Please model this.
Amino acid sequence: MIPKLNIPTNPTSLPIKPSSSFHSLLSNRTFEHLSEIKLTDVATNSKFKLGLTILHMLNTSSHYEVLTSRDGQNYKTSKVVTPEMVDMFAMQLRIKPEVMQKTLDTCKEDQLWQNELGSCYFAVLNYLDKHYKTSQIWEVENPWKLLDGKYFKDLEMEFEKVMKATPRSFRM
Model:
């Protein structure tokens, strides 16, 4: 006779919820002590993954002109990724700026890193469309602020929606 183990079959009755302290531990992890970021570090930390995706989106279109209107006149503003922007993202993600720049350069060249960030692209684009009515990351005033407070919570929820809606075999 097989003993009954009393294991709940309903996932909602499990004692560990999806937003457990372990999940927050992963998203609040710091990388300040690391001299190099590995792909597994990116894969296990949603905040770092989303931050790197936003910075990579800014970096792949290294020059973008935004049409702004002031006093009834239209102006073209040219925007590029500056070291100060990389520093702001590094500060938000708790990583050394030089390591952030090195990781960003790796993302630009390595297809494996780009594949890891692929599903995040859709989450960021969905978030931009929903909250800013645009598909251009450059049109957001201070993009590093998306990693702060309520903005990040909304962005992370959008990321989770994309991950749930995309079958594992179709993720980039």
Summary: The mean pLDDT is 79. The beta strands are 64-70, 73-79.
